[in-house]
Design goal:
Helix content is 30%, strand content 24%. The protein is an alpha+beta fold. A five-stranded antiparallel beta sheet has the order 1-5-4-3-2, with no helix packed on it. A hairpin with a 2-residue loop joins strand 2 and strand 3. Helix 14 packs parallel to helix 17.
Amino acid sequence: MTQNPKIYRINKDHRLLKSLSTTKLIISKIINSYLKGVGSNSNFKADSLKVYIKEEFTYYLYLYNSNEIVSDWQEFLPNELAHDSSEFMQQKLSLILFIETDREEIFCLIGGNSYQVILPFIDQSFGLDTYSRIMKPEYDELASIKSRGITGAIAGQNQQFRGVYRIIDFIRFGKVPQEIHLKLSSEISDLHFNFLKSKMNDRIQVFVGKAFKIKKNVDFDSLHTIINELGIISELEKSDYLSSYEEITDNNFIDNFCKPELFNRMYNDIGNLNNKNLSPNSKFEHDFTNPNDIAKFYEADYYVLKEKTGEREYSIFETVTDKETIYNAVLNRAVERFGDNDPFNFRVFLQGVRVLCYQSDKKKSTIKAGFIYHISTEFLVQGKPVFLIDAKWYILRDSFINDLKINTHHILKTYPASLNLLPFPWNKQIVKTEKKYNLLYRKLQNYIVIDTIIADGLELCDILKYDDKNLYLIHVKYGFGSNMRELTNQVIISARRLKEVLATEEKQTLNVIYDKLLLKKNRINNISLDEFRNLFNRKITYVLAFTSHLKDDVLVEDNIDRFESNIARFSLIQCSSDMRANYYDMVTYQIRRN
């Protein structure tokens, strides 16, 4: 009999496990923590585990039966027909096989419904960490990769590759890999997994993410050999090739420095609630999405916010339809309950909030997670930039930060827009909002203010500028910080949609934009529909326009070190690359404040 299991590793440095001295105590803590979380009063004893010793390894088997709903008809049918829930349930055998090795590691395999039992306690990067020790970028072949984006318009991405596509061909910039399906090099297949090969030229295929999985059914003896080989691999040197980021694994540093700084920044953000006129460096800059399934979070029709009211009890305090309002809604609720001068209870409250995502045609939430786990952000800790992405903490490798500065400087110097493209200065004390700044151009010759006009899902730009040969689509944002990600997203989305529109025969969307401009006062400057459409026959160039947000109005290109946001640097470089490769030319322009 064979199985094709995923292999996980228990994180013995977990705060609930690190003081425990034996494997049996660790297993007991894992299982009892789960039982307590689901409201069970039973107390698991490690003596009930089945134990098997093979060479230097000790195997511990935990078996249990769990209820599994086999049909959602129970919720569809009236209570008179479906009142007995037991009739819609069946028992399912679940198991966890813990393996204690001679290197004092604890691996585990799961069956049935037991993933939720081990999830809080596994090494979340074990599979990726293992692969980083045996990777050969020029020879390993990608089948698919799931990654989390820090820059660009794509927050998360699943990519599949046809033919021979090697790791070395994968653009890793601005991405954190989460799961990879790949074929290992012949060298590594022979060196570490030769016992699994059926033919001499076979190359081992693996899945790596939270777990490590050989994509081949194996018997128990082969599993034993794989576990032993994983221990050998764990002692090899890691490669930093796969990502520009290094995960922070020092729990003391996370608990004592990173997390307090995160909550401090959110607590200080209370004064900014519902204030849209603040400069970017006054606000807590962050992204907000479910870390487990970005697509389901973005596609939800509404979001239910719950607060903790007891040990395992939650109650709804608000339902919202716009994901952009979740953060403010939660902070407002914290202030409503505890005021704006109680940082301890503020933190406790945020840690207890749950966000549930729903689609209109489903009664059950499609996905849910704690509020804090939705936050992705960047800030300085002890003078170095740290990133919180999908509940994991990262630092940028020092060499990469220097590369970012060089590339950012190169783009700003090499692709500048013409002088005086945007002649009006932007002093935020006088012109308080982006909209008001854009409207300064509505009466200026050869300028059209497009801001707030959306047609068929296309928000073309903020300001359109034209001459006899050129059409400039200008996107405007105050500051050169984390908000550059939003600006570059807007540019890429606009360019992609415009390219689609101009590829159609009728180009009907341009007519819709023109009609909406007519409804706005002093926007179109007596241009006819045909004249407006003909503007798009000229050379199209996108302009990414920004200001300095520092106290003094210095040029970003000459003061890269003073503008500390690596997200801004990432976003600019990625956007410039995407635009030139796939859409239109893009230039940059710094709006002066005086």
